[in-house]
Amino acid sequence: MTSIEMTSIQAAAARNNADWCASVCRSHGIPGTFGKTAWWSSRRTPPYYPDAVTLHHDAVPADFLAEIDTASPGCSIKDSFATLDLTSSGFVELFHAQWIHRPAELSAPATPALRTERVSTAAQLRDWQAAWHGGDGTPDVFRPSLLDDPSVMVLAVHDGEGLSGGAILNRSTGLIGLSNLFAVNSSDVEAIWASAIAAVATHFPGLPLVGYEHGDDLAHAQASGFDTLGTLRIWLHDS
Question: Which of 91, 99, 153, 192 is disulfide-compatible with 165, CB 3.0–4.6 A?
Fold first, then answer.
């Protein structure tokens, strides 16, 4: 893959991720805005979701900074191409990660004897979200109205009747985003990756996968056939 192709796919991955952030916000009744170089929400977004996502290399803070709420705690920005320096605007770098891509023509990995199904009810989503978060105090992130979004598929992976893990798929033009992948038991992570990839091949044949990961999750993605496209940064306002 040439550098131009990688840049193009990275931009598509950033747009797909912004589409997903917009879907989560809509499920909370929070409107978002797509500009030429960035997506943003003028209201505080749900936990773990950014207030702005850059869509192009040439995005600058002036494109979105005045449109978002930096006064209340928790404001964050996804710098999709790691090109911004937001320190003078009161932000600190929270972490950096890699955009990932799995070509459509790559064969799906062999899947274990697990059952993958779409989460379709509020009760299923509640149990899925509790398992995804782990521990007590599950945050209010994924609401039932998200299940009515035709671009979103929440996947539950079962071993028998028990929930082994899950992931979320979101479709945008020409590709599928993979996010929020988790395994209830850490030893099952590779099996959950395989199950999620196989689900894409079943429900969205012929479409590539994109997402972003870092740390151990990035290693698991690469072991599952994903390549890296480029770096992104998450900035958090130090308020």
Answer: 192
